[in-house]
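Hi D.,

Good news: the full-assembly prediction came through. Inputs first.
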Amino acid sequence: MGNLIAAKTRVCATTGLSVDLDAQRFIKLNAVFGVVSLLIGAIAAYLLALTRWETVALLDPMDYYKYVSLHGLNMLIFWILFMEMAILYFCATTLLNSRNFSRILSWGQFGLMFAGWAIVNYSILAGRASVMMTSYVPLRAEQEFYLGLILFAVGALLGVMNFFGGIYIARRDRTYKGSIPLVVFGALAAAIIAVFTIVHGAIALIPTWLWSLGVTEKAPDPGWYRLIWWGLGHCSQQINVCAHVAVWYLLATLTLGAKPLNQTVCRVAFVLYILFINLASAHHLLVDPGVSAPWKMWNTSYALYLAVMASMIHGFTVPASIEVAQRKKGIGGLFGWLTKAPWKDPGFSAMFLSLVIFGFGGGITGVTLGTHQINIIAHNTLRIPGHFHMTVAGGTALAFMGLAYYVVPLIFQREYPLRALARIQPYIFGAGIVIMGIGMTLAGSMGVPRRHPDVDFTGARVAVDMGAASPFLAMLGIGGVIAATGAVIFAALTAYAAFFGKSNKGRAMTSWQTPEQDRLTKNLLTTAWDPSEGGKLKTSGTVVLTLIFLGSFVVYYFANWKALADVWYVK
Amino acid sequence: MSIFAVPNGWVKSPHGAERLWVGLALAWCLVLSAAMPYWHFRGKQTSAGEAYEVTPADFDRRVQKFVAAGQVGDRNGLPIVEVPPGGHGYMIGKNWQWYPALKLKKGVEYKIHVSSADYQHGFSLLPVNINFHVLPGYDHVLTMTPTEAGEFKVICNEFCGAGHHAMTGLIIVEE
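Then the structure:
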């Protein structure tokens, strides 16, 4: 059994799992470029936050557009996808006790993604592609911008193929017994979504690239482009959701020894993502010309909201697994499992904050804004970035930060410096994102547009006064600066640790938790136990939390229908 | 454990609180799904996406004809055009302004045609906060009834190039 070659494998001194050295190299390479992208995006974030904060109004409009483009691509695409590649390598090898599938494919993955990353960042910084992440035609960037995106996507596709190959050889060589672990299952769901995401990207961007080269004369139809591009743009965010939910499960196990109550429920929820998320691209077209109301309603309802239901299920199963593990350790009370949780472990705090911000902040707003008619009072206002900063930054990015606090000691085999700062970093970043997200949401509710450097409309023929939104734009600015600072602290600590951190080769990583917490978690990880225990281990705290969640959801949702009912009649 | 392979035989239905939550989530999703069709028939606001193919040049000609026929004033050089009650009004996004300004009456239904001469734009009516997407080549027809009188501003909320931040327009509604 097994396919690992001893000379190319090491055994992790902390977890006892086998690490394929080939996969380890690619985990490192991808993680490093992910963190570098995060740093670039965070520097741009400072500039943007300080521009939208009107009392500072830092950048002039053309610079603002350039840095929005830079921020969007580095944060939403580069940081996230490099990290996801690292996760795929890890899941297909270490968690399956298997080897990396193909070194050639792996170099292809990294090489193409690196080339695309370099070309796109050059193009934007040189002022040749200030077209935003969405590059809506007929806006036209210089041709290398589209080429860079295509290369990056092809690289990602090779990474996904290598992952599928890895799953295949692990199964063929019987490196594991039974079914693949839940975390790998989540990564597999993400990888499947990635395939059709990238195909959409190719269909939208290749004709656009040919047009930018002058090969074709006419730009792709703008309505068609939006439909197909969002097959890339929205589905790619669903890769993130799958990946960060998998990371939630992973971190819940690593930090607490948690075990899902019911594997079937968790896995079916991942399958629902695969089946229904593709339709979500319609969320961006809810007030578009040329697509009918029934089309919009059907597609925005995710075919009866089954993908939303999947997220609501994970929102229960993850905290429930934590609660049950804590109760198994003998911690009682309704919320003892939370108050006695390892809040000083940045792996745990990042994971739990990510869960809360994603659910309460990102999830509720996302479903509401994505409701066909409600979108009329939300489309392209600051409410939209308010929503997706709480999903992608507060949810995905924060979960990946928590992951890094374990990846660097376990895979790079180096310790973090300034551990006290690392312990508070998830709180700084999370707080910044929440303050900014609320500021954006409130300003957007007053109609303040996104992607706009100057809501004083200097030089406009018809004056527009948005002064009433100023306090909320200040909130955006202050929250943005705090969040960017949290991201820079993370990137700096992680980069330092990865290259110069104290080596822990040959011994267990320095724990983020107390020896007593470690002992209890280790007990759960090394003994067989049944998380349901015939219903003896309660999940009452989780039930209370999820009911509060559902109550907030209902209130926010119907408040928005009320707000819609008050505007002009329109269809 | 989420990180270990699971032995066969893991397929089982949820029970207890988990089962209850799955049921609640499904019920809520059915409410969400039903709300949109309900509003479609009972509500006053929707986006029907009514649109016709038109070249930017043709649409611009219609706008010019519309301005010539109905101009009743101007604001800093921007013509103000009165739309006949129940009739058709035209507004085009180009060179970073919404052209022309429209004059409407409260409580009257209009067909407002919005399109673009150049890039994608976002038609955003303030402070009402009504937002629609505007594409070149698409004559987007909004059937609109103002429910309040006053001066309303239109801004662009989709990035459309160098002058995007100064792109504004005007709709005046009289009692």
